[in-house]
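Two proteins were folded this term; both appear here.
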Amino acid sequence: MVNNKKIEHAVSGKVFYFAPVDIYENDAFITMFVDMPGIKKDNIDIDLNKDQLIITGISEEDEKVVKDIKDGDDENRTLKKGPSFLYREFRPVSYRRDFIISDIDSEKVRANFENGVLKLELPKSEELRPRKIKVI
């Protein structure tokens, strides 16, 4: 399924798409899976400020495609302005999601990015975790 919901950042004017997200919860953690295909690990920003979580993934134009065409055989090396696309479906896409998540232990948040999916483990603060109270 293609996610075509997008927003325009008020300051930069850059268009961001909503990254699809699955969120799970247990007694100790909130776990999020954020789908960001085409994003490199180094281009992901995760900001947690008080109760606001902002996840941003910025893609870069894939210059390798253009370079491969320019460095191809003699016929393709004559391209001076670079290639023009006959048909293009692969486009650089940037993602952003904002969440309000309270009572998270920000010092213990873990993030892992593999195969285009960001996994965030957000531990709940100790005060929120359920406890058994022993009756004496």
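Next, the second protein.
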Amino acid sequence: MLAFANTSANRFRFKNVNCGTLAVDDAGHRPCWLANLFRWEDTMGRQDHMEIKSLEDLLLQQLEGLYDAEARWLDQLPSVAECVENESLRSALAEQSAETSQQINRLENAFALTGLNPRRKRCEAMKGLIRECQQVVAAAADPHVKDAAVIAAIQKIKHYEIAAYGATRNFAMRCEQVGIADLMQQSLDEEGDADQALTSLAEKIVNANAARI
């Protein structure tokens, strides 16, 4: 049985990366301002880097990535709901907002089971998916067609979350963290149900309305 609480915090610190040998003067020294610039750029580009030496490390990384992903999506949901035309779709988005809040709570509970405080690791996948969703929201389009596009964008996010929760659940089971696995399964079930509900709404109503344009 793993004991995250007894694990040294040093295992989870971000790794510092040297700037290398770029930009030296004739004496072989890098100007201070330039060294600081390279160091800042390196930190910005690598701040989410983490060593993965074990499955426990990977499990923690997954939890941190999901925690960031769900927080980003929760922030985005209100603006998506404002742009849709179909009332059923707007209601589905309100339900997703409530579920996402619950999923964030589950992730915080999962962190508690590891003995560590919740923390976010920047999720580049969710950043990209949300950026695409924002482009759909901002697009000049017929309202019914935009609803269809919004559902497609949201389902890409749902499919990512399904994959992420499924993998995290499996890692937790292998690490004998049954409590974490159960929490991930609850969120996985919710994401699967949400995806199916969006598919049904699209096929029965939204896509049909868009096809009439």
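The chain has two domains: 10-49, 52-211. Residues 52-211 form a domain with the Ferritin fold (CATH 1.20.1260.10). These notes refer to the second protein only.
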